[in-house]
Request: fold
Amino acid sequence: MGTTTSEEILPIGPKEELPEAIQEEVDNICEPEENVHVVVSTDMNLKGIFDENWFLATDKRLLVFTGNHYKRPELVHEMPIVDVTDVRLKNYIGNGVLEIETAEKAVEFLRYSRTAFNKSGIAEVPQAIDRLREQNGVKIEDRKGRDHEHERGHRRSSRCEKCGNIVPVWTETCPHCLEKGTLLVRLFSYLKPYWYIAVIAFVLSLATTGLGLVPTYITKFLTDRVFVPITPTSDARRLFLLNVFVLSIIGIHIFNTALGTVRTYMMRWLGNKIILDLRTSAYQYLQRLSLNFYNKKQTGRLMSRISNDTGRLQNFIVHGLQEFIMDIFLLVGMCIILFITNWRLAALTLIPIPTLVVGSVIFGKKMHLVYHKVWRRMAGISAILADTIPGVRVVKAFASEDREIDRFKRTNEELFKSNMHAAKLSTIYFPIMGFATFAGGIIIRWFGGRDIITGNMTLGELMLFMGYMMRFYAPIQGLTRLNHSLQMAASAAERVFEILDAQPEVDDKKDAIELPTIRGDIKFDNVVFSYDGEKNALDGVSFEIEAGQMVGLSGPSGAGKTTLINLIGRFYDVTEGSIFVDGYDVTDVKVRSLRNQISVVLQDPFLFHGSIADNISYSKPGASRAEVVAAAKAANAHDFIMEFPDGYDTMVGERGGGLSGGEKQRISIARAVLKNPRILILDEATSSVDTETESLIQSAIERLVEGRTTFAIAHRLSTLRKADKLIILEKGEIAEMGTHDELLTNDGLYKRLVDMQSQLSRMKAI
Amino acid sequence: MAIAETYSIENELNILDPKKVRVHKDGFNKVKLSIKGEKEYPEVKPVMGFPLTNPDSFISFVEMKDGKKDKEIGIIEDIKKIDSKSRKVLKEELRKEYFMPRITKIIRMKEFHGVMKFNVETDKGEREFETRYKEDIRKLRGGCVVIRDADGNRYEIKDYRKLDQKSLSLIDTEL
Reply:
């Protein structure tokens, strides 16, 4: 009974708010007791002209209107629900059509852009109509597979789920929903452990800024008391004052420089310290996150977050923030002094400020655009270089050097043009800004000069104005850039915090136990796994492996082979079902203790920057030299290693530069041998090497496999012949399982694959 | 010595005789193809080979089976060579399946955190859209620009150099 009520409450389909004008029309058409269940708006009419269109479904009929608040609505379609025999969404490129079929014909009912499709609930309309048809007594067969395929390569919606705005590429959190304030507050929470340093540095900032204004102020006294005394003074007195003033200027300068040095050092320490903390915790966190996080982001972007974004934050804390505080104090301080000295002249000095502010803002924007263009062109040149220099063999092979030179020349000329555009702008900008400052000087001289003549002002006061003027305009230009640097810092902070906020999907349970040394029995119990929650990569996989057995995994690409082995090492957690190792559910044990007993040899082995010995002992830090050499021997790697002049000390690059694919593979096998794992995983370990190397690797692997539970993925089925058990996957399910001979007699997918491969090798022989 | 029977890649092309090709639509919105004197196909899907650079050439017909694409039937090299009635049906269908409004004027372009927001006038009316990748704005030969927005819609500028001054200065920065 409970279920029926909840079904009644469940809405039949998406329901947007309907404009009043259309509501009136609907009321005219529909019967009084008729309920509207579905309301969806789209952004184009059936002719493909951008226009508001509304689709409605009531208990009895389907309706389409054009129009909105401003335009009188018009009825486009009306169809009784009982007439409907089929509903289809036909998704094309750049648009799509909702098609309704009756017994006699198919009608294009509603057209929508991809934007409307992503924003509104059109995707749910067919199901909603089916529900209404059922209410009208029509029997509906299963909907699955009846909708047209989506456009190939169509990205999943890039809109924010909360506000519907487009989310930029580099982030997953929507900047529209972002609160800049909270971010900065959070950033400052990193200041907390060092708050006393921050306070001292802040006080020192105030002091140096204040003291920086004093010498100019002293010059005023110097002028009015010593150079051109206002009141008659004796020469001896003047000489004495001269000494006092000059000495105090020297003293203040030295003292201020010392303070400034201490302050700068403290601020730098602070900035670096915060970044040290932030960068380390971000990296720590990154290492803890599961593979899924890495799959979703591009590694390049993640690297940039650790190095560039944290650097940007440091820049903001050390420079941006500091300068901002100083600028404010400087401005306020000078304003106070100037207004006290001569408020009328001070007010006049402010006249060029609007020009300065507006100029900086406008030119700042313009310059940004122009430099953006320069940057684009520069990237264009880099793209050509990145294309043609590594691809130089192709260029030469097709004798297209001249064509490439031409292409480069054109792009380079465009860069020149935009560079000159930037040059033009900046040559205009600086004189204009200079003129504004110059105008300030003229105002002070002229109005100040008049005040001196009329005796309203002393020469010293004029000197004070002249002295401050030069320093007055500079901070204003700095402040106009504040918003920009604030924006930069906020977005950098956000990207770094995003890493810190991500929850590791594979995480030890609180009561996770240490996995003891295992024998290597493995059991999959109805395992379901999905990467995206939509499509199952593995769909109900069950099997049991005894310790020491070798299992061959095969099947078409995309069948779920790699997914299956990734689950054994718990790089992901299963969506449904469970995996047992020696009877322990892998989710109940500590991930580290599990992975310590598993070794993986991948198709494209990754070597870290370091020596060959370092790379082999990566799996067992602190391994003795004897162990390393023994492992290399077991992996058939020793001989080629000894041919390098530096032997085991040979440096290999990030991707193992200088080593061939087969050599890298054997080093990674040595790595696996050294670890002496209970479970061994070979993911296409021999697929990218020549036949001779393959036999070397194969014999190394056979040694390695002895007595361990082994999973081997291979396309070349001959390599799997020795396996105790073969699992053939297809579309995430086990298609066949058994020994080589059993499967051959079975005459299924495996037989087909074997036949195809022997045919292929015969073709190769010809 | 004469070279006997050189292999020619043109044999790979399955070109349909434009004089024999007829395209029409039935009441159920299905595109039908008949090749005179040879075969009738109850449902086909026409696909453009060069939708951006040469929409009128190399139209491929794919047979539809149970609402899914099956095998290619053949290609017509030039849409202009088929009879006018078929051409009209075909063009209309292609324009629907590859919807790409033509931008005639750029009113505003504004960047926010790496998302570029466009306000434009097109031949289908005014429109607002966003791009996320700089590669989404693609310059083709002859000044043609194709923009793909964040939702997967496409827009075309026939020749950006012929846009009005303001539009030109806006788009030029992104090319």
The first strand of chain A starts at residue 36 and ends at 44. Chain A touches chain B at residues 44, 48-51, 92-95, 97, 99, 101, 104-106, 108, 113-115, 117-118, 146, 148-149, 151, 154-155, 157-159, 165-171, 175, 369-370, 372-373, 376, 491 (CB under 8 Å). The CA atoms of residues 85 and 105 of chain A lie 10 Å apart. Residues 521-597+681-687+710-766 of chain A form a domain with the Rossmann fold fold (CATH 3.40.50.300).
